[in-house]
Model the fold of this input.
Amino acid sequence: MDEIKNGKNNNLTLVAERLENFTKEELLEKYEEIETKLFKFANFLEAQLIFLYTPTSNEIPTERIIKKALQIEKGVVLPVFTDAKNAIKLYKINKYNKDLVTSANDILEPDIEKCKKILVEDIDIAIIPGLAFDDKGGRIGFGNNFYTKLITKLPETCRKVALAYEDQIVDQIQMESRKFTVDIIITDKRVIYKI
Done:
């Protein structure tokens, strides 16, 4: 267990150091490459219901992606975090500026009074956040296991995709189980299919 934790900390330190070297403008340029690739990605284009997330400060920003997906009439599903066993409830939003509220954790979430609850098995493609990834689909999240649990509940047919700067890709992420991996990682340089 300690070996896995130390490996994660080393990878997170490495990624943080790499990203510190970029200006906001350079990161925006990289982000635009990622966004362009996502909107040309066949699984994304074919999907009816897309799971996305509203970012915290350390994740790829998704506000533009959410707004663009709504513009092209994709079903956009976002998480509502619950304290019950680190669970996520899924809600479909229709309007970015009207359907979101700020949670107690200072995260934008769907307003459960306005939005329709969605079953996890109805998701076609899930965009999963993370801080670091490897080319086998391994990921390091924030340690709260919300997304790790979600990955195991998504249907087999659902593509689990991460968006990451190329600089967030590390040699290897030690994981307790490979069932928590993503299938595809879209970076500013390439599209990585899990090997």
Remarks:
- The helical segments are 2-20, 24-38, 42-46, 63-71, 96-99, 146-153.
- The longest strand covers residues 75-81.
- The longest helix spans residues 2-20.
- The two ends are 24 Å apart (CA to CA).
